[in-house]
Amino acid sequence: MNPALAGAAIRRERLRRDWSQEGLCRGLCSVSYLSKIENGAAGADAQLIAALLGRLGLSAEAEPADAALIERSYEAFFALDSAKGAACLSALREAMPRLERTLLAADAELLEIVLSDGGRPAPDWPERSLGLRQRSLMLLLRGEAGEAWRLSGEPVFALIAGDAEFNRGDYISAADSFGSACRAAAELGRVRVMLSARLMMGNCCSNSGQYEGMERHYRIAERIAADLGDAGALRTIRYNRASTAIELGRAEEGYAYFSALPEPTAMELHKLAAACELLGKREEALAALGRVSAAPREESAVENAVVDEMCAMLRWRLEQPDYLSSAEYGRRLLALFQRLRGELPPGYAGFHLGRVLEWLRANRQYKRALDILKDFPSYYN
């Protein structure tokens, strides 16, 4: 039993019941001693702690099945196993009324939050009462994934830290974090973490215009995804590869992938139309845009909210040869660009950067173009 965690649980339940310290400890110990126990400053014996827990209806012991559930939940999170994580989350929620009455309450509460991706704040367990795994989850919930990685050595935290750096556009730091995640995942056998890290390393190269580096990481990620039977990861890798090819002017490669999809989504039809635009296939591009309204949509509500405007901008260029002289086209394009920068990963804005710069230069807005370029240093590479 962790005496500090027991003290924190005693204080939490006492306050929840609105009991005074004097009322709780009467006949067992002094108020000052209870205060030390609650603050983790006294190493009280197990018998006294059990008596205090008993008065509050709490237990120092948990059912073996509940302890096993906690272990499975940690493993599912650390292994990035979404299927097992969903099963554990359901079981945790069902067992929560029972778990909350034991010293597994902190583990259960923290795991329920991280497995649900609920975005809720860290609970109020005092850090000094927590073990290493619990503290690492608390750090994660406070937005300190890098510290959680350094504390625990679990690669999923390095992966999450890298995601945050990637979304800020700091691809150098992100690549370092993803590399650390990949190496540690290989040592620990965390195959899904290794897959995600390799995929994101490829994305870093993609967003930096490093096609060969992107291909190297994507090939490895593709093999891992195939071994795992992860169709979603395979489609993501192939989409990113083809989309990057279009962005870098290798339109034939992007066209070969997107034109062969049997049931393309709205976003994939946008990329097909973009490839056709670069290849001078105007009628095929317009035909692809005409299929967007009836096409399957993405899981992301934000992507769905912008894909129609992305298609509208592309259609404008196809139908209005003088689009560069249109102030309305420029206004809408810049508004879309700002929305993509604010609401989606950097690659979405990067895909449209060339068109934004094209319009700004055509309209002699050189300073604005330069200011935007400062936020996209990889564009110079």
Automatic annotation (TrEMBL):
Q: Which GO terms describe its molecular function?
A: DNA binding
What's the protein name? Helix-turn-helix transcriptional regulator
Gene3D superfamilies in the record: Tetratricopeptide repeat domain
Q: Which Pfam families match?
A: HTH_31 (PF13560)
The species this protein belongs to is Candidatus Scatomorpha intestinavium
Annotated ranges, domain HTH cro/C1-type: 10-63
